[in-house]
Amino acid sequence: MEHIFLALKPFIRGVARHPLVVIAAGLALAALAFGFALNLRIDSDLSALIPPHYASVQALEKLRDQVGGESEAAVAIESPSFDWSRR
Question: Are residues 77 and 58 in the same domain?
């Protein structure tokens, strides 16, 4: 642990001697990060995260073409035979 402190000693000395520079650099980095954060967007389309050649993405695209979108849909199948319903 001592060797890490000795390696950082020049850096620590510089920070202690120039606190205004450190504060200004920190504020500049925070402003830059805030600028990037303003451009963050959440994409709710999970298919955008999957390569387009995957079967699931292709099926989703086919569904979008047929239906016009992919909203949540519930389908109920009533049948006396569970095996027939599953098929």
Answer: yes
The domain containing residue 10 runs over which residues?
2-38
- Residue 68 has phi, psi (to 5 degrees) of 100, 0
Residue recorded with tokens 């079967």: 55
Contact of 35 with 41, CB cutoff 8 Å: no
Write down how long the chain is. 87
**21-67 pLDDT tens trace:** 999 999 999 999 999 999 998 877 777 788 888 888 888 888 878 87
Per-residue pLDDT of 1-11, as tens digits, reads 889 989 999 99
Distance set, CA 82 to CA 73, 75, 76, 85, 87 (Å):
21, 15, 12, 5, 9
